[in-house]
Automatic annotation (TrEMBL):
InterPro entries: TAT_signal. It comes from the Bacteria. This is Sugar ABC transporter substrate-binding protein.
Length: 414
């Protein structure tokens, strides 16, 4: 996938301009979504089950630009599906959203509902989740699964030196992949207050935990031969291609990313991939999740009914059957998921333990949150470029990155 959302990225400015003048189509309800490619096709299959016509608009990662253009043009969609709880909070406080029945929030664990409750009012329902603490590999290529961070580092160093496939594939062209690495390390610390403060936009990136996490990434990513074609090639590699490097071309032994990797792997595999969890770095095994929430735009006559339907137990049956889908909704029967890993992952994300943390970059305020070439995504790409340069000064790279993160946090919250 060229982005977390699928195969086709719509340029934000072009999409916003093209859609700003669009009105409602034949009385159909309009839903703006972040998905594209296969995910978009699955969602369109889902809404075909709704009793009224629904028109789906794909905005790609930068859905914010599309919604702002549509708002200026007076042509808001009825419903939007947002990838970041920070957007839900911002739109709610700007008066863009319709409040929802609080009973809908009872369908999710409090850890999920709290993220899209603003000043005591529920403004969204979660329609999709992502488990983002998995490494994927073919059992014929990687026989031993590291169970600790030091074990993973040892595997990377030994595999990089033996002249075979590179130990790691990484879609560094998608900045969110790099932030997911950092977030799992930060989620591994027993004291989770720092993670929450960073997500709230506080300029605390010079904390020792962040420095330790960045230093650990620098050491692993800087191993010569860690990635197929080296660091520069990795910066041109998008997430979908990194999966293909493991399951099809076998240029790499393992790739880290979420449960949605299965949807890509299924298209190419001649051997079923297996997974192991992101290993503990400092105290606990992390569980980082992401998610997409449906909200009703102000003034919509039919948006509430559609969102209520999307939060029901059966709406997403077609997507579950097609694979590559998890829901945090407790009403969705676990028996709908295939036995084995899909069902286990679904159970884990919907009944989160204390260690669960929501994607940090998706919670950051304003311009700090990730977009292509912007915010924390860009900062981590610059860090990756610095540490994968031959004879890199790793300590300086950490110092520069910490300073940039703090400066951007202060600017975003000013």
């Amino acid at each position: 996938m060229t982005s977390r959302r699928g195969l086709l990225r719509v340029a934000a400015g072009g999409a916003a301009a093209a859609l700003a003048g669009c009105g409602k189509s034949g009385g159909a309800l309009e839903v703006a979504v972040v998905w594209s490619g296969g995910e978009l096709a699955r969602f369109r299959e889902v809404v075909r089950g709704y009793p009224e016509p629904v028109r789906v608009i794909s905005a790609g990662d930068n859905i914010d630009a599309l919604l702002r253009a549509r708002d200026r043009a007076g042509a808001r969609p009825d419903v939007a599906i947002l990838p970041r709880p920070g957007l839900v909070a911002g739109y709610a406080r700007d008066g863009w959203l319709e409040p929802l029945d609080t009973a809908l929030g009872e369908r999710y664990a409090p850890a999920w509902t709290d993220l899209i409750t603003v000043d005591g009012v529920l403004y969204g329902v979660w329609v999709k989740a992502a488990h983002k603490s998995l490494f994927w590999h073919l059992p014929s290529v990687l026989t031993d699964q590291p169970d600790s961070w030091s074990g993973l580092l040892a595997m990377v160093e030994s595999r990089a030196a033996d002249g075979g496939p590179a130990p790691l594939a990484i879609g560094a062209a998608d900045g969110w992949v790099l932030t997911d690495w950092l977030e799992n390390l930060l989620a591994s610390f027993d004291d989770q207050r720092l993670y929450q403060d960073l997500a709230a936009g506080k300029p605390l990136w010079d904390a020792w935990q962040v420095r330790d996490a960045l230093a650990a990434l620098a050491r692993m990513w800087s191993v010569p031969g860690a990635f197929p074609g080296g660091g520069r090639r990795a910066l041109l590699t998008q997430n979908e291609e990194s999966v293909i490097q493991v399951v099809a071309s076998r240029d790499a032994c393992t790739v880290f990313e979420g449960d949605f990797v299965a949807g890509v792997a299924r298209q190419f595999q001649d051997e079923a991939p297996r997974t192991f969890r992101f290993p503990a770095f400092a105290g606990r095994q992390p569980l980082v999740v992401g998610g997409d929430a449906a909200v009703v735009l102000r003034g919509s006559a039919g948006g509430r009914d559609l969102v209520r339907w999307l939060a029901g137990p059966d709406a997403f049956r077609p997507w579950i059957a097609g694979g590559g889908y998890l829901s945090p909704n407790r009403l969705v029967p676990l028996g709908l998921y295939p036995a084995g890993q899909p069902r286990e992952l679904a159970a884990e994300v919907r009944e989160p333990v204390d260690g669960l943390r929501f994607d940090l970059s998706d919670q950051l305020p304003g311009s700090f949150t990730g977009f292509d070439g912007q915010g924390v995504w860009k900062i981590l790409q610059d860090f990756f470029a610095a540490v994968t340069t031959p004879s890199a000064d790793l300590r300086r790279a950490v110092d520069d990155t910490v300073a940039q993160l703090n400066a951007t946090a202060k600017k975003a919250t000013a």
